[in-house]
Amino acid sequence: MEEEIKETNESGDKEDINKENNEELENNEENKENSNEESSNDEVSELKKKVEELQEEASDMKNKYMYAMAEAENIRKRTAKEKTDAIKRANKGLLLSLLTFMDNFERALKAGEKDENIQGTEYYKGIELIHKQFIDFMHDNGVSEIESLGEEFDPNVHEALTMIEVPELDKEKVVEVYAKGYKLNDELLRTAKVVVGKPPAAPKE
User: Fold this and answer.
1) Which residues contact 103 (CB under 8 A, 6 or more apart)?
2) What is the pairing mode between strands 181-184 and 143-146?
3) How far is CA 126 from the centre of its chain?
4) φ, ψ dihedrals at 157, nearest 5°
5) Whole-number mean pLDDT of the chain?
6) Is residue 30 over pLDDT 70?
7) Rounded to an integer, what distance in angstroms lies between the CA atom of residue 200 and that of residue 130?
8) What whole-number distance in Å separates Cα of residue 187 and Cα of residue 144?
9) Could you give phi then psi for residue 38, rounded to 5 degrees?
10) Residue 161 and residue 192: Cα distance in Å, rounded?
11) Residue-wise DSSP of 113-125
């Protein structure tokens, strides 16, 4: 009888031990799973953070690239404009110098018009030909004459050498052109040197 009770107790103790062992194993497994899950979550968070950092870096690099491209384009345009402006200034200076020769040819032509012995000669025809070539050259390079004679006086394009009273005028007008004025395309190249006629002064009472 005592032996049976002893066996029963031993059997019960074994069952309790087995039960405790099983519970401990289950807890270990659960703890392990929880640990693995936490580790996995940490890795995902780290990866997300890394992706965000890379995206920010890529966005920053893109912005820097776009800025550099825009700056390079601005430099290219500015350089091209400076080059164009330099060429225009050089051309303007050359054309302005040539106008002096044009003036001299025109004075020679006017002098020849007053001398019948010169008109029709090869010399006079040569001057006329060179003058025409000058005019064609100027036109080809965008130079045009400013119409002045008989026009209303405009200080923006006319330089008054003197002013005289002209009875039939009701406003200031150009009555004589000493040196023609010219434009280079739409830009003033040289003002016209003119004599300006003005209405007579009102009589004093």
Assistant:
1) 179, 180
2) antiparallel
3) 47
4) -125, -10
5) 79
6) no
7) 42
8) 10
9) -65, -40
10) 10
11) HT-TTTTTSHHHH
Task: Give which of 57, 33, 56, 37 is closest to 45, Cα–Cα.
Answer: 37
Contact 196, 160 (CB under 8 A): yes
Q: Is 31 exposed, middle or buried (0-12, 13-18, 19+ CB in 10 A)?
A: exposed
Q: What is the rounded distance in angstroms from the CA atom of residue 40 to the CA atom of residue 24?
A: 24
196/162 Cα distance (integer angstroms): 6
> Which candidate, 145, 152, 150, places its Cα nearest to that of 192?
145
DSSP 8-state class, residue 169: -
Return the structure tokens found at 91: 């051309």
Query: What pLDDT digit, counting tens, does each position of 70-81 carry?
Result: 888 888 888 777
Rg (the chain; Cα; Å): 51
CB atoms within 10 A of CB 119: 12
Q: Residues 82-130: pLDDT tens digits?
A: 766 666 666 788 888 888 888 888 888 888 777 777 777 888 888 888 8
| Overall residue count recorded for the chain in this entry | 205
The type of residue at 107 is R
Nearest Cα residue to 189 out of 125, 121, 140, 138: 138
Residue with tokens 């001299």: 104
Using DSSP, state whether 179 is helix, strand or coil: strand
**How much is the pTM?**
0.56
